[in-house]
Structure formats: structure tokens, C-alpha cells
Amino acid sequence: MTGVTRRGTLAGAAASALLAKPLFARTGSPQMPTADLILVNAKVTTLDRANPVAQAVAIRDGRFLAVGTEAEVRAAAPDATVIDAGGRRLIPGLIDSHIHVIRGGLNYNMELRWDGVPTLTDAMAMLRAQVARTPAPQWVRVVGGFTEHQFTEKRLPTLDEINAAAPDTPVFILHLYDRALLNAAALRVVGYGKDTPNPPGGEIVRGPDGTPTGLLLAQPNATILYATLAKGPKLPPEYQLNSTRHFMRELNGLGVTSVIDAGGGYQNYPDDYAIIEKLHADGEMTLRIAYNLFTQKPKEELKDFASWAQTVTPGQGDDLYRHNGAGEMLVYSAADFEDFRVERPDMPPNMESDLEPVIRLLAEKRWPWRLHATYDETIGRALDVFEKVNRDIPLTGLHWFFDHAETISRRNIDRIAALGGGIAVQHRMAFQGEYFVERYGAKAAEATPPINAMLAAGIPVGGGTDATRVASYNPWVSLSWLVTGRTVGGLGLYPPANRLDREEALRLWTVANTWFSNEEGKKGQIKAGQLADAVLLTDDYLSVPEDRIAHIRAALTLLGGRVVHGDGDFAGHAPALPKPMPDWSPVATFGGYQQRAEKRTNLRQGIAHACDCHSACTVHGHDHAAAFASAAPAVDERSFWGALGCGCWAV
Asked: What is the tens place of the pLDDT at every residue in 383-409?
């Protein structure tokens, strides 16, 4: 593929035609009835307290028909197609209550993911390989999902290392929401020079002569990071469709069947929803998405929500794609970014006066909302507003909630309970716990967030990731954090009193999350009558050693009884997925989340692609694949190719 693929452009007329369909258009039902299906020989964790375990399930018309013994389900659907689970664990499909999947899908095929990569050496080898494959004027982007603490080296690459790896191709590396690293080529493209002023809340770090070094800091506002990333090339619509399909399938491969999209910066409604709308209209979605609307303009938040309330209502859509309310940004003056490397930001004195009219409007229109809030101080001030509005417009029955809430106090937990709200927690501390401990101490980190106190108060609590720019989208990393209390860097944060047992953690990722999208009783359990979303696991979540939880994947994923992912023995059941577009996409070489078992194979393939040798170097005649395969498992890749004397590594 050349032309469009290499240039990243698409004719305007073609793009307009591609996305010409209106919102909620249909070309046929995406939930058409399927043939009956039975899974047998499974260890079924139903999360239905009335029927907690089973051996088989029967599915008809997208819903569970029977859950029980093999004899019972065969009798319920005697003509069904049968899949033998091979004794594997079957769980309800995972639900991420906070992810930025719509925005993430538009960019996924352009991003080199360092999620799960264990060493900086490996990460930089991937970067070099991708630089060699990426044509001008495209960038190489590493956009979150990792932390320096996951690397054996416990550090980020230096700017000198990045510039040596990519002297001419722009490179943008986002680390959490605290900093971005840009090479000299990227600085030239975005136009940052001696005279470029620092934006409010951000810093362009400079050398002695005032020249930007390539380091951008959130101080503590992440807008500078957002805005710089937005200067990069975008994929044309046809490729965004492909990219979103690949991102959805990546999540399916980890067992995710439903998400709640929390909106995001530079995610404008309805323009940036055109791609997901088309996939929905064409029956090509493999995730259920409930989406919240995120205001984009400071001082115009009330205007945004008033306008949207005239065009869309919560619940509008269907079981695959539906509107879910407002947030996670409600007003900009209430946004407390979670950069634990800097002091907690105080919200401005106008926070309450900005927030109150928005909450009144949402309460009057019966719109559920979610609000990003990291710190207890922000939560307390927001609750002052919520309680004031509640006195005039009762919030009873509105499924509103806070996101994050790392430092929430017991008092504010009780206030949320009294108002009927909830809390969605994410594993951001698994990526930033070391920074929190450094600033506030290990004792303060022991209940950050205090999940068991939330559950004890009886409020709805759900699990999620906040992917893709902060934490990884891998749900098993979150489940590992909930169970073990450890960061991805191995630091133990939580005592047993603030950890969950495996079943309770799984509930936060399934049935508990249905409250946050007003879908209780519809999904989240393996139970007759509920949507047939289920995952057959590669390893038994309930019995594997704790250090293996983060490495679990899906062997088979069902969405409404349809196979949307299959691996290994189940690969033949999965529908085909088109190749990633463009042809230089990092996804084509490295995929997404990097499993330990896959890491060395993917790295080897990436290096091979980088020098266009694929198995033998055309310059030196080295058979890279065969030579590396015969090397000792512990061999260092850099040393290996260095010993060969092959210039491919330097590429």
C-alpha cells in the first residue's frame, strides 16, 4: 500500500461520502438473532449469587438461555452449535467504567504502545524499529499507558537517547500526565522556539540560551501535553475506521465487552463521534459503548450542556451504543489533575459558581453525570454544590458519580452515600504510586483510594482504567492492582484491609459497573435472560499465582453470543479483521499490550521489519530470525545485533 497509506491523506470528497450518514443511522440491525450456541466443559463463574457456579451455558438470540450442567443446557438447546471450553474458566464479559475508547480508537493505529514492556532497552528498540518504518511527515507517538517504574532501569529515556534514535522523524512520548518528551524534529514541527511563551499551568523546559530542550511539564495542568499532541498528523477517516476496529478487538482480546467512554480533551461532539457512529450503523462494533459528553470550552460549559440536552437524551441508542450523560469534565474550574509529582492544586474560588448552574441544568433534565476529582478537597467543594442543588431538585434516582477519588475522606464517602451517588475507581495508583509515596508517605498511600471503605458505606463502586493516556487499558493490570495492592513497578501500597479478594475485584469489573450506565440486570452476570457477554480465559483467574493475574488474556470472547475474539484453539471461531492501516502502523509489527511471552518475538520481528529484511538482512546477509531464535533466552537484543556487527540495530 502506497499513496494514501504513506501520505496519511484522503480526498475531501471521499471522506465526506464515507461519513455522510446521520447520527444513529442504520444499515441493518447489529444485534440480529444468531444460531443457538452452547459452551460445555467450562468452570463457569456466574457472579449470580443464586447460582454461583456452573459447567455449561446455552445462548439464544444474544442472551443466556440456560446456565447449569451440560445435560441441562443441551436439553434447553438441543440443536445448538457446541464449543468445548477445555476446562477453562468462563467469566462475564469485563466492563470498563472509565476509558477513552472513542478518542483512543481514532489514534490507536498510529501509536507505539509501551504498555507492559519490561525494560527501557526493549522500549527503545521498539522506538528505533518504528522510526525506521514511519514515513515523513508522520510522527512516532508513545502516548501513555506506561510508567518509568515498570522498566527494570527505573527511568525514562533521555532526550539525547531519543534524538540519537530519531534524528529526523518527529517523536512524541507522553508519560502519564506529568510530562512529554519531544525530539528536535518534533520541536521543529510544532514550532516551539525561544520566543514561545509557557502556557498557563504548563512549562516548556529550556536550556541556558532559552532554546526548548524537548521536555514539556504539566505544572500541573496537562493542557500543554494535550495541545502539543494535537498538532500531529491525523489519520484519514477510512483509516480511523480501521484503527477503531483494531482497538476494539485489542480490548476484546483482553476480555472487555463493554465500556463507558468518559469523553476527553479534544474530543468534540458530534464531529469526533462520526467514526464510531458509522461502525455502529454498519454493524461492525465489537464493544458495547455508553458515552458521556465532555465539554471542551472553558466558560462555555453551561452552553454546551444546554445545547446537547436539546439533541440527545440519556439512554438514547441501543445495547451496543447509547448516550450515558455528562462528564467527566463538567466545568474547567473543577478539574484537579492528578500529577503527584507536584503539589495538590487548589481549585479557584469561582469553582462553585461555575459548577452550580451546570448541576442544576443536569438535575432538571435528569441527566446523570460524572465528575473527575482526584483530591478530597475538590470532592468536598463539589459536594457542597450537589447538596445545595439537591435541596431544590432531589437527585434521587440519578446515577451520578465521582471518578478517581484517590484521597477521598470517610466524611465525603458518607456524603456521597447520603445523596445516592457512586465512585468509579481506576488503577492510576498502579502507575503513579511511587510518586504518591515520595510526596505524601507510605502511610497516606495505604488507602488511596479507600475502596473497602467505599464498599462498606454501601455506595456503588466500579472498576476501570482511565486509559489510554495515563494507565494502560489492560483490565488484568487493574484486577492485579485491586487484589495485590502493588504497582506495576512492584511497590506494595495497600495492606490487606484495603485489598479485595478475587471475586469482589471481578464484581467491580462486571456486575457492579452496570450501575454506572443504568444497565443493572441487563449484563454483568452469566444468568438466564442477560446479554450473553462472556470470556473464556487463558489462565484461571481464581487460582493462578497473584503475579500471573496481570498476564491473563481472553482465549474466546463472546458479545451477545457472537464470537468477537478467539485465540489458540479458538482462533477459528473469530471473525477476520482487516490488516492495520496504514501499512507502517506500529500495530502491524508490535500489536498493542506487550505480554512477557510475546515481547521478544515482537521485538525481533520489529527489528526485522525496520531493516526490511523480514528474516534475512539484505545488506549483511544475516538470518536474524534463525540466529535470534537459537540464542539463549536471556540474551540482550542490543548486544546480540551488536555482536553480529549489523547496522540494522542502529536504524
From this structure: 999 999 999 999 999 999 999 999 999
d(CA 624, CA 618): 11
Q: Three-class SS of residue 215?
A: strand
Q: CA–CA separation, 138 vs 304, rounded Å?
A: 33
Amino acid letter, 390: N
Which amino acid is it at 311?
A: T
Which position has the grid cell 443446557? 73
CB-CB contact of 346 with 335 (8 Å): no
> Which amino acid, one-letter code, is at 12?
G
Closest CA to 384 of 352, 336, 418, 406: 352
Q: Which residues are CB-neighbours of 417 under 8 A, at least 6 positions away? A: 457, 458, 459
Q: Which SS3 state, helix, strand or coil, does residue 402 take? A: strand
User: Among 293, 312, 259, which residue's Cα sits nearest to residue 105?
Assistant: 259
CA distance 340 to 210: 27
Length of the chain: 651
Rounded CA-CA distance 439/430 in Å is 16
Give backbone dihedrals phi and psi of 171, rounded to 5 degrees, phi first: -125, 130
Residue 268's alpha-carbon distances to 53, 275, 454, 624, 639, in angstroms, are 44, 12, 33, 46, 47
Residue 224: name the closest of 252, 197, 246 by CA: 197
- Cα distance between residue 345 and residue 335, in whole Å: 9
Q: What is the distance between the alpha carbons of residues 356 and 406, in angstroms, rounded to a whole number?
A: 23
How far is 612 from 122, CA to CA, in rounded Å? 19
**DSSP, residue by residue, 99-134:** E-HHHHHHHGGGB---TT---HHHHHHHHHHHHHHP
Q: How far is the CA of 548 from the CAs of 1, 94, 455, in angstroms?
A: 40, 18, 26
Written as nine digits, the cell of 372 is 473527575
Burial code (b: 16+ CB inside 10 Å, e: under 16) for 89-113 equals bbbbbbbbbbbbbbbbbbbbbbbbb
Range with the poorest average pLDDT among 12-21, 70-79, 149-158, 427-436: 12-21
Residue 602: band (very low, low, confident or very high) from pLDDT cuts 50, 70, 90: low
Which grid coordinates are listed for 563?
Answer: 464470537
**Mean predicted lDDT score pLDDT of the chain:** 89
